[in-house]
Amino acid sequence: MVNPFYITTPIYYVNARPHLGHAYTTIVADVACRFHSMLQAESFFLTGTDEHGDKVVRAAKKENLSPRTYVDKISGLFRDLWPELNIKYSYFIRTTDPSHMVLVKQIMQQIYDSGDIYFSEYQGLYCFGCERFYSDRELVDGKCPDHETTPELIKESNYFFKMSRYQDWLIDHIHDNPDFISPEQYRNEVLSFLKEPLEDLCISRPKTRLKWGITLPFDKEYVTYVWFDALLNYVSALGYPDGDRFKTFWPHAQHIIAKDILKPHGIYWPIMLKAAGIPVYKHLHVHGYWNVDQSKMSKSIGNVVEPLQLKNVYGLDAFRFFLMRDMTFGLDSNFSEEALIQRINSDLANDLGNLFSRVLAMVHKYFSRVVPEIDIDVESELDLGLESEALETIAKFEEHMKGFAFNKAIMAIWEFINHMNKYIDLTTPWVLAKKKSSRKQLEVVIYNLLESLRIISGLIYPIMPETAKNMQKHLGIGPKKQSFSLDILKKWKTLIPGTRVPKSITLFPRIDLEKEPMTSPGRKDTKDMALDIKPEITLEEFNKIDLRVATVIHAEALPRAKKLLKLEVDIGEIRTIVAGISETYSPEDLEGKQVVVVANLKPAKLMGILSNGMLLAAVEKDSCAVATLDKKVKPGTSLN
Ligand code: MSP
Known about the structure:
By secondary structure, the chain is α/β, with parallel strands linked by helices. It has three domains: 5-287, Rossmann fold; 316-489, Isoleucyl-tRNA Synthetase, Domain 1, CATH 1.10.730.10; 526-626, CATH 2.40.50.140. The protein is 41% helix and 18% strand. The chain contains 23 helices and 26 strands. The strands form seven sheets. Strands 1, 2, 3, 4, 8, 13 and 14 form a seven-stranded parallel β-sheet that branches. It has a five-stranded antiparallel β-sheet with strand order 20-19-18-21-24. Helix 18 packs antiparallel against helix 19. The site of 5'-O-[(L-methionyl)-sulphamoyl]adenosine has 19 residues, from strand 2, helix 1, helix 7 and strand 13.
């Protein structure tokens, strides 16, 4: 029996929209969870949003919204984004959920009753960005290392949690459980922090200063410090203390975070658990930062990378692959679109894509698209170590995936791809195909290659689930028969001879590197990039697009979006469409105009407005031209 698997991401603050960094952590959790499903483990994957605190109140004010309306809106953006990235979480928790709030109060009361919380006056340097007090030695040149702002001196009476009481226990726990925090540099960082005496943690905020939080059960004038509230999500989501989920999954809890929140997770959280009498989590996985141009992503620098844009231009699986391949878990990585394009072209289009089409082309050419038979007599002579290499690859993959060394797991698969290419060079199927007498040999070679591709399709599944399914489909494995279980992958000769395979496809089209990258200054619009990688479609596929004439009834600019206009259009019915054309068109230019829209595009939210269709426009570097008609027609008329 394999152990159940419980994986969590940080719950994200709702003071900003989701970006590449949030997407990375959540994709890592998804990849880990899918991998554990290959081991047949029962899994639970938790993500969510952290919705209390000063930051949220300030962000809501900026948008002229009440905290409640504001948190609903941004939390919704996170929740809606994950399925777009094929992330299959089990539960989405919000710290404003009533059940979570009840549990926070319960645990607060319990720790208070056991004497680990006391009331005292405190004066300290407070960073509003981090929502915590800083000691002098934590500051860099007197500034918060994260926000680079000078913290404010605050004097107030508050409740404190006696963390210091548990310092020795925590040091022993980390020494006794070497893999409690990994990679090792972060374990060492926590241990080195614990060399100094731990200060007690201020766990309340007076309501005179902040109301948007969970009221302390033992003092109605105070709310709970946001971290004390947030960390408890990991157990409240499981229905602690009595829920079955808690019993099944908590003993196997693994948290994923980036290095920015190591201290709350590596120090506060285990001590909170210990004080509350809850067993400590199993494992903390800490990753580095995705930087852009070697600096942190930030709204003010304007270098925030939007995951959905990348998905739309390059395809989801390629994007997920890049993130897993180009970051060594634990270290920082630099994001650039050139690197992404290069990775797609070399690893996906060239290596995997070419190998796949090459093998399938031979199945088409030599066997009329049917998986060949294998003759036992010639089988061993033509194996050339391919089967054992495949099994070794699976073993390496399993080891690296368990250790969160995703890039190494991928490298192991790619070594096997190289091995397959060598196998083709050694066996020269095109030569075997020339003679009738070597037909049996040809059959074995092609069967072995197909079987190897089946194994690759399984190994890439956690990272590129749709490509994995697509590969299996093209190996003749129908949706119901597809399997990514590691045990089945290990069974050599699973493909059934005589199965017909579908027509060949290009798994990953090459991308033209000459094009300017999207994130560089003066970039081309994403639509330009997308043009280069659009696959050929059939007339039938084209006919699925519902192109219609729309009369613009009303247009208005969106104050917070530089490029966007909100349009009310008549396409036989009234629709709202948001279009990124305001740098070229003012609302007045458009009112009364007849334009062309894609009427059956899946609705998408842009700046909180549901856009129900897409307006067609030719996009150049700094301007665009909307598609119009050369004479007036009835609104809603189809274009064929
Ligand atoms: N709300 C807290 C977490 C509470 S968990 C009980 C918080 N939220 S956050 O929105 O700031 O999210 C921080 C996390 O987002 C990081 O730990 C990491 O998982 C992810 N990332 C944010 N920026 C990132 C990068 N630039 N690179 C990689 N991951 C990053 O902290």
